[in-house]
Each structure stands twice: as C-alpha cells, then as structure tokens.
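Justification of resources, computational component.

The compute hours requested in this renewal are based largely on the per-chain cost of generating structure records like the one below. Each record pairs the submitted sequence with a full structure-token output. That output is archived, and it is also reused by downstream analysis tasks.
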Amino acid sequence: MKPYFAGLVSAWALLTVGMVGSAGAETQSNIDDAPANPLQTPNARPQGTYKFIDPGLPTYDGDGVSAAVSNVIYLNNCKPNGCAITPGNENAMTNRSTIPEQPSTVTPFAYSDANWAQVVDCVKATYAPFGVQIVTERPATGNYHMAIVAGRPGDVGMQNGVGGVSPFSCGYIPNAISFSFANIYGGSVDDVCWTVAQETAHSWGLDHKFDNKDPMTYLQSGPSRKSFQNMAGSCGEFSARACQCGGSTMNSFQAIMQMFGSSTPTPPTVAITAPKSGDIVPQGFAIRADIMDDIGASKAELRIDGTLVATLTAAPWVFNAPMNLGQGNHTIKVTGFDIGNSPADASVTVSIGSPCTKPADCSNDTDTCVDGRCVAGSGVDGGLGDVCANSAECASGQCGNDGEGNAYCVEACDPAKDACPSGFGCIVAGTGGVCWPGAGEGGGCSSNNEGAGLSLFGLGLGALLITRRRRRS
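The structure output for this chain reads:
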C-alpha cells in the first residue's frame, strides 16, 4: 500500500512528481493565492488529503464491469458515542476502512445540532447540481459512501494539519469511508463543508485541483463556500502538476456529472418587490427581487422590454434600470436560477412619465411609440428600422435578420396590442414579438404577414426564430 498523501511540506516531493510547466498554469485563472515558492506552506488551514489503496481492490472506472456506483452519501457525525472503525478493505456498512492501521474510535462532532444542520445544508447545496442523495441516517441496505464528519486526525492515526482523508484510486471505490475532521475547524461551516466535498470526491477518483473556487482546491483566496467548477484546470495543491490518474487537467463538475448524472431540482420562486406593476417610475429606478430556493439561488438576470440588461450572482437581488430608458411603458422581468441552473421569473409593467399612444406624445421629436413607450425612431442611428450588422448598433440592443440579406434594428412588441408605428408590424418572436418594417400596413400590429423565418440577435437573447403569421382578414 502506498503512503497517504498528506499534502504538507514533508510530502512535497510526492506532490510535485510530474508537475506541468508554468504555461499550463496560465490557463487556470482561479489561483490568486498560489505562492511564488511552492515549498513554502502558504497558510495554516488544515488540508484534506487522500490515501492510495491497493489498485486490486474493487473500483468502478466507468467500464460497467466492477461494483455498481451508489449515489448515496451518508453523513455521520458519530454522535453520541463516537464511531468505532476497524482496519480492512472499504466497507461502510461494517465500519471497515483502509485509513487507520489499528482499531480506532472517531470522537463525536463537537458542535451544536444547529451547526450540524448548517453543515448538512451546505453539503446538499454543493452537490445540488448532481444526482447525489445526501442522508443523515444510515441506510438499512445497499451500497453507499459514508462520510464521517467528526473527530480529529489523531483519532485514525493521521498527523496534525490533516483536515480530512479518503481512500483514493483512479475510479469509484464502492462502500468507501471518508473522514472530515470537523472538530479542528472551530465550528466553521464552510471549512467543514469544503472538506466533506473534497474527501467524498476523492473516493470517486478526483484529484486536487489548482482552482481556488473548487472544493478540490488547497487555495483559499476564492469564496469560502466552494462549488465544483465546470471548467478544465490543472491538478495540484499550491502549484500546477500532472494529475495522479493521467493528464494535466481535470474538470471536477463534469467528472461528477458523468459519474452520477444531473439532479432534478425544484425551480426557485421569484417575486419583484419593487416597483409594483403600474407604478410610474423615474429614470434609473431601482428594481428589487426576492429569490427563494430550497437549496440556494445562484444567479439573477434583469431584462427590460426583452433585452438582457444586467446579471447578479449573489444577493441582494437589486438592480438599477438604465438611465437612457425612454418615456412610456416598460416590461421588467427578473429571472432567478438555482444552483442546478433551473430558472423561474416574474414580470411587472411600469411607466416612465405618461404612456404614449402615438409618436407625438413623446418628448423627443426623433422618438416613436411602441406599446406605450417612447423609443428611438427611424430617423435616428440605431433607431427602429435602421439597417444594422449586429445588435450593438441598435438602441434596443436587438438586430433582426431575415436570412435574405435584410437586417434592421427592432423593438419588442406585444402581438395582441397592435402597437407598432406606421410602416411596421408586430411579428411573433418566441413568446413575444418585434416591430418589423413592412410587416403590417402601418399604424398597428398586423400579426399576420407572409414571410420567411427571421433570426433575432438581441443582447442576451441568443438566436430566436421569428415567424411571420398570415394576415387576418
């Protein structure tokens, strides 16, 4: 059996075998606290490690021949009397582990039940994108991973400075037991959660990653609450090196996704708390939203009149509308995403000044009226109907292309309102519409007009198919 992988200065010779060159490290951006001298211990945080097990033991490397993969992780805090562990081949069901060299007892989790509940919630959030089941009661039957979250490294013969340890091979180890020594972290939920994620993943064949946002990292300059990053990056602790199981990079997110598949999360709930629908608002008005999710919200997007305006990645979910929004009605939509990227949205309609009913109602002579709002008209560069090559040339941020060499700046409209200006008609675009030159007979939205499909390239909208419908008689 190979010696355990301590990840400390005394073990650096093992860590740096097969290190990649500095050019490889330059492709990895999340390395803010990587030290100039990798032999210098850069911090005092206890770090997780792994212990190579006999490669002849049963593992699963994706060939489908060996023991089946279980998606169950049993979090065991060893309360109230500790966890008795017997040396031997991995067997979570019988508390047998390759980690200790002699019979050992892991002392119970030292903190409150409320602290434990926070650790459990954090681990669930970390694994929320994947088809992984986190439980706190020992399964009665079947294969599972037991993550012991308690005790200190000396309980199983590890040296001080080891934050956790797991058996490791280049594949999934069935019935494995990992150890996250929670009692040395002083009740820090994020540190314990980070260690649990790293140690459980080690038993599936994931190496350390040179990325300060990923739970597989040793680096601390990133967020205290780590998440598996969907990007390839170098393996390594405090500098880049070759991965233990081959190759120079690892994508931890994809490795776990390939192992377990994706989750089926419940979408978040989204509510716009300000402004309210129908409010008259000033330019640059604030938009506030509440986004609630059983695991956690990861992102919010603001769209105004169908155009993506801003994105936030953390609460509070507060935006400011652009100062150049014109007079009239505007549709505000906030889309919230959970950790698994499931979306939900809420919308309100507000007005800057009085809604327009015709171009003459607009305070700017070059504006025209679309759906009660004043927008840049056809006599302005980038205005409605102006020829465009891309969306950046349009005041609306939306350039429509019919695929036949015709591309014009467009504005979002509601096909049911007949509210495009003279010379334009509202044609269907996804769940809404856009004002398109000549689509109607002027002065309103002709929702029925022969024509080919159009591509709308709007800011944040991607490519949407626009279909002209036949005219009503």
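The chain has three domains: 4-260, 269-352, 359-467. The two ends are 83 Å apart (CA to CA).
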